[in-house]
C-alpha cells in the first residue's frame, strides 16, 4: 500500500454518523490488541487538548521515554497524526500501519469510520516501533471517541465550552457528560477550569466510578507566573501538584491560556509518576523538555513572512469556536499593537457558531472572508451576511486569494492575522512555505 492509498482509506470514511459511536473495539480485536499494555494520558475537553498533549509529550520525551501521540487534525500532512516523541511517522511507516489495519478491516463485517482507522493505525505503529507511553487526544466526543478504547489510566479534561453542539448537545451539562465519559474505575483524573454547570455534571459522572484519584486545577493543582520572563514571549511558571512544586518551568507557547495547559500536562506527568510509570527525574530535564515544546498554528508568528512579492508578518491561530477566539484575542491584539491595524483572514466550518466568533474580532480591522478546501467550509457569502453592518469586509474564493488580498490591504511590511479553522491555518502554512509540524 502506498501513502496516497493510506490517506484515501480515512478520507472515504469521513462521514459522521449520528449518534456518535465508537467503532474501534472490533478492529482492535482483529489486530490482536496492538494497544495491549499501553498506558499514558488521554486528554479530552473542548479546547487546549493539542497544546496540553504537546507539553506532556515534550516533557516525557526529555525524561528519556518514547511517547506515542496522535494529534488532530493534521494541518498539512496526514503523517502528522501518528508520532513518536513528536516526530511524525515516515510516509512508508504510515502506509505500512494502514495496510495492516486495512487487512484486518476486510475480515470484519462491522461498520468502521475514519477515527477507528486512525486510532488503530496509530496503535499498530506504536506496537511496531515500541513506545513506553502514549499521550492521546480525544476527538470531538469523549465517551464515544475512538481512543477511549485505550485504557491509559490518566485522564485529563481541559475545559468545557459550547462546541460541536450538533454532535454532543447544546448545553454545558450534555457536553461535560460526553467529555467525562472517558473516565474508568481506578483512573487518575485531572480537571481543568470548568463552568459551574459542567463541573456539576462531571462530579456526577465521577461519583459513578470507584477508585479514582482526582486533581483539580485551582485546588490540588496550582499554577502561578513568575514576575520575570525567560524570553521576550516566554514566561516562567510554578506548578504545584500533590507530589510537589515544580519551579521555573518555561512556557514557550504564546498566550496566557497556555500556562493552564502546561499545568495540566505537568500534573499528568506527576500522575504517571505516582503510578510508577515515570521514574523520578531531575527538574532540569523537565524544564528542557517543556522549553522545546512547539505546536504549530497556535498563536504562531511568522516574521518575516513571504507570499508572492509581499513581505510582512503573519500571525496564525486555529481558534475554531467562540471560546477559543475569546481566549486568544487579547494576545493577538497585544502582539499586533506595534504597527498599523492588521488584516484579518477568516474561514470556518459551517457547523460552527461563526456569528459569535466574528463578533469577537476587532470591528475596525479589515476582514477577509474566505473558504478552505474542506467540504465542511462555510460559504463566504453566508459569513458576509453575518457581519453586514461591519465596515471593511471583503470576500475571497480561497485561502491564497484571501492572503493576496490581505497583503495588498496591509502593504509591504504589514500584518496579517489568520484565524478560524485549523484547515485555514494548514493551508496558510503551506502557502508560506512552512514544513509540516
Task: Describe the protein in words.
This protein is an alpha/beta fold. The chain has 2 domains: 289 residues, UDP-N-acetylmuramoyl-L-alanine:D-glutamate ligase; 132 residues, Protein-Tyrosine Phosphatase, Chain A, CATH 3.90.190. Helices cover 37% and strands 20% of the residues. The chain has 15 helices and 17 strands. The strands form 3 sheets. The chain has an 8-stranded mixed beta sheet with strand order 4-3-2-5-1-6-7-8, covered by helices on one side. Helix 3 packs across helix 9. The two termini are 24 Å apart.
Brief overview:
This protein has 437 residues and is of the alpha/beta class. The protein contains 15 helices and 17 strands. Helix 4 crosses helix 5 (114-129).
Q: Mind sketching the topology for me?
A:
Layout (H helix, E strand, L loop, with lengths): L2 H9 L13 H6 L9 E5 L4 H14 L4 E3 L13 E2 L2 E2 L2 H15 L8 H16 L3 E5 L15 E5 L7 H4 L3 H9 L7 E4 L4 H12 L5 E4 L5 E8 L5 E7 L2 E8 L5 H18 L8 H9 L8 E8 L2 E8 L4 H14 L7 E5 L6 H7 L6 E3 L10 H7 L6 E3 L3 H12 L4 E6 L1 H10 L6
Parallel strand pairs: 1-5, 1-6, 2-5, 6-7, 7-8, 13-17, 14-15, 14-17, 15-16
Antiparallel strand pairs: 2-3, 3-4, 9-10, 10-11, 12-13
Helix pairs in contact: 1-4, 3-9, 3-10, 4-5, 7-8, 11-12
Amino acid at each position: 500500500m502506498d501513502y496516497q492509498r493510506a490517506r484515501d482509506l480515512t478520507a472515504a470514511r469521513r462521514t459522521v454518523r449520528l449518534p456518535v459511536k465508537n467503532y474501534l473495539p472490533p478492529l482492535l480485536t482483529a489486530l490482536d490488541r496492538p494497544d495491549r499494555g499501553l498506558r499514558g494520558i488521554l486528554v479530552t475537553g473542548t479546547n487546549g487538548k493539542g497544546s496540553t498533549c504537546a507539553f506532556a509529550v515534550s516533557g516525557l520525551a526529555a525524561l528519556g521515554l518514547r511517547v506515542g501521540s496522535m494529534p488532530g487534525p493534521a494541518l498539512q500532512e496526514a503523517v502528522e497524526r501518528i508520532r513518536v516523541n513528536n516526530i511524525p511517522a515516515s510516509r512508508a511507516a504510515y502506509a505500512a500501519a494502514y495496510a495492516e489495519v486495512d487487512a484486518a478491516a476486510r475480515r470484519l463485517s462491522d461498520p468502521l469510520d475514519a477515527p477507528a482507522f486512525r486510532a488503530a493505525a496509530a496503535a499498530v505503529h506504536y506496537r511496531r516501533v515500541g513506545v513506553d507511553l502514549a499521550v492521546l487526544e480525544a476527538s470531538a466526543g469523549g465517551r464515544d471517541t475512538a481512543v477511549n478504547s485505550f485504557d491509559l489510566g490518566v485522564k485529563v479534561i481541559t475545559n468545557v465550552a459550547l462546541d460541536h453542539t450538533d454532535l454532543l448537545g447544546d448545553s454545558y451539562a450534555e457536553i461535560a457528560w460526553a467529555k467525562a465519559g472517558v473516565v474508568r474505575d481506578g483512573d487518575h483524573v485531572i480537571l481543568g477550569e470548568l463552568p459551574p454547570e459542567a463541573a456539576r455534571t462531571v462530579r456526577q459522572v465521577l461519583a459513578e466510578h470507584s477508585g479514582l484519584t482526582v486533581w483539580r486545577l485551582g485546588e490540588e493543582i496550582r499554577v502561578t507566573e513568575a514576575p520575570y520572563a525567560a524570553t521576550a514571549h516566554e514566561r516562567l511558571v510554578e506548578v504545584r501538584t500533590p507530589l510537589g512544586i515544580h519551579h521555573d518551568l518555561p512556557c514557550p507557547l504564546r498566550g496566557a491560556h497556555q500556562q493552564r495547559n502546561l499545568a495540566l500536562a505537568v500534573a499528568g506527568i506527576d500522575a504517571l509518576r505516582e503510578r510508577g510509570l515515570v521514574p523520578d527525574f531531575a527538574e532540569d530535564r523537565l524544564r528542557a523538555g517543556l522549553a522545546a515544546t512547539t505546536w504549530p498554528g497556535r498563536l504562531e508568528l511568522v516574521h518575516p513572512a513571504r507570499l508572492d512579492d509581499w513581505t510582512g508578518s503573519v500571525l496564525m491561530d486555529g481558534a475554531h469556536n467562540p471560546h477559543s477566539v475569546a481566549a486568544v484575542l487579547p494576545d493577538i491584539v497585544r502582539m499586533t499593537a506595534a504597527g498599523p491595524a492588521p488584516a484579518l483572514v477568516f474561514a470556518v466550518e459551517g457547523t460552527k457558531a461563526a456569528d459569535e466568533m466574528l463578533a469577537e474580532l476587532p470591528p475596525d480591522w479589515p476582514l477577509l472572508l474566505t473558504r478552505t478546501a474542506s467540504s465542511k467550509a462555510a460559504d463566504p457569502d453566508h459569513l458576509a451576511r453575518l457581519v453586514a453592518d461591519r465596515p471593511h469586509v471583503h470576500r475571497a474564493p480561497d485561502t491564497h486569494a484571501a492572503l493576496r488580498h490581505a497583503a495588498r490591504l496591509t502593504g509591504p511590511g504589514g500584518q496579517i492575522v489568520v484565524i478560524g479553522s485549523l484547515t485555514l491555518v494548514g493551508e496558510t502554512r503551506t502557502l508560506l512555505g512552512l514544513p509540516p509540524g
